Amino acid sequence: MQDVMDYRRSLERSRLSRMRRDGASVFTMQGREWDQLPGVFAPTDSPSTGIALDLLGLASPDARTHGSVLEIGCGTGVIAVTAALAGSERVVASDINPFAAENAQLNAARHGVGHKVHAVHSDLFDALEPGERFDTIFWSSNYVLAPEDYAYEHPHERAYVDAGYAAHRRFLAEAPSWLTPNGSVLLHFSSRGDLLSLMRIAGEVDRALRMVRVLPVQEGEHEVQHMLIEIAPRHRTPSVPGTRTDAVPQQGRRG
């Protein structure tokens, strides 16, 4: 299992993906066609986008949502656009890669939800309006841990690794302050990441973690556990299924 946790393996996957995609293209997912711009994380090169849709209950064609959603690390915008198509009235798609923000807006327009989806180039929450609040905040994270001093060579690498878990620390610390009163913060993590380090960081920033769902996925010769984790201030017990916001649907989840 150590080899799939090695950040150098993930960086090589990022490099190969960039080499394969030196121009704009179109891919198919969820029975729909999507624009793919160069330099943006490609859902067809990794299973994580499809798994995230499954974890959120958005993989079903009859999935229904409502409320407002903020997606961190939106990439091509598949998750953000799917949430809007399923019924969410307002979706903000944020990515530190400016090409990804452009890509997400293209796909929102392609699928007729450009009036619902607003894509923004942002380092986590930095470019959001101060008064914005969301019923659901979701991040399918770059859960592979890279050394704290690693210097990114391309924005694309940020979709694959997190140096020193700096982004995870900020997400855990800052995300709850962007919620509506009954909102939920959800994190897609995996056993390719360092769960013990995530738990330690949660304690340091006074956050509680609750496992909502675990989905085992065979990746090569390894079974990788993909996790949907709810994050809340430690003084507030994370909500239980059936009581949290319906901005992300509950059907199909298992604890």
TrEMBL record:
<keyword id="KW-0808">Transferase</keyword>
<dbReference type="Pfam" id="PF13649">
    <property type="entry name" value="Methyltransf_25"/>
</dbReference>
<feature type="region of interest" description="Disordered">
    <location>
        <begin position="234"/>
        <end position="255"/>
    </location>
</feature>
<dbReference type="InterPro" id="IPR029063">
    <property type="entry name" value="SAM-dependent_MTases_sf"/>
</dbReference>
<keyword id="KW-0949">S-adenosyl-L-methionine</keyword>
<feature type="domain" description="Methyltransferase">
    <location>
        <begin position="69"/>
        <end position="144"/>
    </location>
</feature>
<dbReference type="InterPro" id="IPR052190">
    <property type="entry name" value="Euk-Arch_PrmC-MTase"/>
</dbReference>
<dbReference type="InterPro" id="IPR041698">
    <property type="entry name" value="Methyltransf_25"/>
</dbReference>
<keyword id="KW-0489">Methyltransferase</keyword>
<protein>
    <recommendedName>
        <fullName>Methyltransferase domain-containing protein</fullName>
    </recommendedName>
</protein>
